[in-house]
Amino acid sequence: MDLQESKFNFSKLNILANQIVEGFMSGIHKSPFHGFSAEFDEHRLYNKGDSTKFIDWKLYAKTDKLYTKKYEDETNLRCHFILDNSSSMHYPKVDKFDLDKCSKYTFSSISILALINILLKQNDAFGLSLFSSKIDFNISEKCSYNQLQVVSNTLEQYFKNHGSTKSTDTLKSLHYIAENLKRRSLVFIFSDMFQDDSNTNNVFEALRHLKYNKHQVVLFHTTDFEKEIEFNFSETPRRFTDVESQKKIDIYPNQVKEDYNLLAKSFKAKLLEKCRQYRIKYVDADINRGFEKIILTYLLEKQKF
Prior knowledge:
This protein is α/β, with parallel strands linked by helices. It has helices at about 5-20, 55-65, 105-120, 145-160, 170-180, 200-210, 225-230, 255-275, 290-305; strands at about 35, 40-45, 65-70, 80-85, 125-130, 135-140, 185-190, 215-225, 240, 250, 280-285.
């Protein structure tokens, strides 16, 4: 995938995002914080020691009283995206970014770039962390088109260069990110949450760490629902390979489907229960169901923030 192709696909996503959110963008949030930015809010009486730079001299001429202009702070939302970059997220295998045929990684990447475009229109700050067995990439929140370019290039780079056996250490990675998010943020996690069974409870505690630090957390549980949850494969024998350990098993899918369904749905139910317990928003993000649910979730969570 060359850079020109990547930009073309992402520009199509920008069109999609704009279509979905165009009617929602007006008046979504009004800053409770005040500084001296470009958008005028109201007047207040001049106090001794205030800068004279912001005195409204026209109002002084009318009222014979000194008032300063108070402004809305244009950047009041900080949004941090956390993307699971383990090998399981690169399933199913695709060779380019495409809106109609996605891996879990490309679906998440396109979703993140769509939301960043909305954030930029609102002058809100955004950052990104990628993790697998370690933190692969981390950039703190900032509002700029240069930051968008860095994020876009990074997502493309890890798509092209991902290894075939990257394992997942969600526990360590989420604890690290929680410790380094210094200001309250809206945190979006894109992950299939596949872990070794022994680490599952610890992962829930890592999610709890993000909530403890006052962040508003949304988990987009990213799956290929038909294959990974429903286990809908043909009845012919197949060889399945664990993309992280490279272990292989030859089975007839229909012989194990019922047991697999029970385990997969039990895991989802436990994940949902823990998210409710820790007041984390859980969103079932099926890569075959489009991006509208992702963007609408963002708009609703932003209103709550």
